[in-house]
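Please annotate the following for my students:
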Amino acid sequence: GTVYGPSGVSLPQILVQFSREGKFVAKAKTDSSGKFEFKIAPGLYDVELLFFGSKAMDLKVRVGRGHGFHSARLRIVLGLSGTRCGFATTSSKEFKQAIKRFEGQLQEKQH
């Protein structure tokens, strides 16, 4: 997956942690391109994102269908303080639409 800011810029050094039913499953830190990777079984997960040790976002994510492992490109958009951004999708189209919406929110906040 990849973690982005509300303007669509990828974010490095974000800790992404997956847990299921209260039990830790996996974690990874985003690289210089905002990317992270790990393998998890299909199911519903709680995802926590930490930025320099501070919680930046919590969300629930359903991974895969059927049996075995599933490869998905999860795109997570973090919001800035005071904005109502926070979004995760595996759809490129939904991601592009969300970034356009969030850019509008950021422009409104700046004025």
The chain has a mean pLDDT of 76. The radius of gyration is 14 Å. Residues 29 and 37 are 9 Å apart (CA to CA).
